[in-house]
Amino acid sequence: MGGDGPGGSTGSGSPGSASSQPASPGSAWAPFRHRWFAAMWNAQFVSNVGSWMQTVGAQWLMLTLTGSAAYIALVQTAASLPVVLFAVLAGAIGDLVDRRRFLLIAQGFMLVAAVALGVLALAGLVTPWVLLALIFAVGSGQALTSPTWQTLQPELVPADERAQAISLGAVNQNLARAVGPAIGGIVLAATSAGTVFLINAATFLAVIAVIWYWRSVPRAEILPREHVGEAIRAGGRFVAASPALRVVLLRTALFVFFASAIWALLPLTARSQLHLGSGGYGLLLGCVGLGAVGGAALLPPLRARFRPGSLLSISSVGLAGVALVLGYLHITAVVAASLAFGGLAWILALSTLNSLYQLTLPQWVKARGMSFYLIVFQGGNAIGSAVLGLTAQRAGLSPTLLAAAVGLALGPLAGLRYRFQPIPPADLVPAGDWPAPVLADGAAPVGPVMVSVEYWPSAGSDAELLAQLRDARFSRRRTGASNWRVWQDASIPGRIVEQYVVASWEEHLRQGDRVTVRDQERLDRIRAMTDPSRPPVVTHWLTPAIGPG
């Protein structure tokens, strides 16, 4: 989408529309057989071309306004920072409201901001801080859009094609690199940055048109809709209580912090070391996009051969080599070839991280859960760009790229301790048969609810049941518990009580809808360890209504 595409700089792409690629069910291009996926993907591609044109125009305009490496790197920071500030709110809203209307509003806001940037640039009224402010405004619209858009597209294809759909979403922006920067450089050389910005504004219309004609399926709501604050807290609890998601976030942060230096400092490399103009800079970015196309084609066979951790390690080390080439080999042809390889490595890394994360999210928390990934990705991008840009200004370009290369080369060592934990999608569907709690006549639950479950382990299974309960705490917290404890009777060690607190009665009822097949299997294993003659007893404790005085 115009500012950075629905995938933002988390990547995105594929080589054509639905009709341009024959697809087999297991091919990388299979999702293009589905009408709305193809329409949205192509609209996203048009908008991402405009986005990369804007990137070239903004960075080159900043270069003419000030030669400061810090200011040039801040262009990328201004585009990425809004995700850190607004993505969680946007993800919660995207899970609660009509997605079509929400996307139309966000796209309209981005259109207005992009038009304002173009008009002011044509009038010669843009200063470095005005440029950063308007790039920030476009990025804010992108922050509102991204969590919903990234989780929407995979839903437009069958479940067995969602991994491919996510990967195509993770390469779209990089395919746009193959043409967007080159077009941007040509238009910039022939006209002005203001014209480039207005062309980007026009590309938003492609996305708005597709969303206008698309009709979302209304959600079936049995319980009252969550308040935004409750939804944000639920999303945060889910991510915090998911070890698999936390590993992906940590590995993403380590990777993108150092990788951001390559893209943030590329304009300076093009001008100061390769002595290229705006057209040459656009062609260098085009090489990155062409490499991304190759990466998209290689993804299915590579995924079949390598584990996710190995793919990320190969990509990270490959980008370390690209950073070294940029820093120390000032030959345009060599740099262009290395950037093509960098595009391939970049897309392998992004599709690996994005797919792992998104496929680990149940449906009810998709958009708000995805917002935390976007925060880490774009936050790492923004912070890395700013820190390494300032470092380049003080220490020089080549030493900074060397530091980035060292960080990228050593980053995979984190996998020795923090390994990816893929979860089959079938394990994340709702379990479905959660028993509804029973209220006494006239009870009106107000305030927090405490749930206690009394267990009597079968002979010899005390320790194993306690171990399983400690693991089950993640499930309780993911589905809504804000506090969890397990207790053992001091006088009767065979009596064990699990206790957890939920913010409200409605939130506790939602727990039943959020329990997945994987969660239920663990709870069933715990129940199987109990004494058959003394099954678990569940008690719901309500906050008493205490009158005045």
Please describe the topology of this protein.
Blueprint (H helix, E strand, L loop, with lengths): L34 H31 L3 H28 L2 H24 L5 H25 L9 H8 L2 H6 L2 H11 L2 H21 L14 H13 L2 H22 L1 H8 L4 H28 L2 H21 L3 H27 L7 H30 L1 H14 L38 E7 L6 H18 L1 E8 L7 E7 L2 H10 L2 H12 L8 E6 L7
Antiparallel strand pairs: 1-3, 1-4, 2-3
Helix pairs in contact: 1-2, 1-7, 1-8, 2-4, 2-9, 2-15, 3-4, 3-8, 4-15, 5-14, 7-12, 10-13, 10-15, 10-16, 12-14, 13-14, 13-16, 15-16, 17-19
Quick description:
It is built from 19 helices and four strands. With 549 residues, the protein is mainly alpha-helical.
Description:
By secondary structure, this protein is mainly alpha-helical. It has helices at 35-65, 69-96, 99-122, 128-152, 162-169, 172-177, 180-190, 193-213, 228-240, 243-264, 266-273, 278-305, 308-328, 332-358, 366-395, 397-410, 462-479, 505-514, 517-528, and strands at 449-455, 481-488, 496-502, 537-542. A four-stranded antiparallel β-sheet has the order 2-3-1-4. Helix 13 packs antiparallel against helix 14 (332-358) and helix 13 (308-328) runs antiparallel to helix 16 (397-410). The N and C termini lie far apart (59 Å).
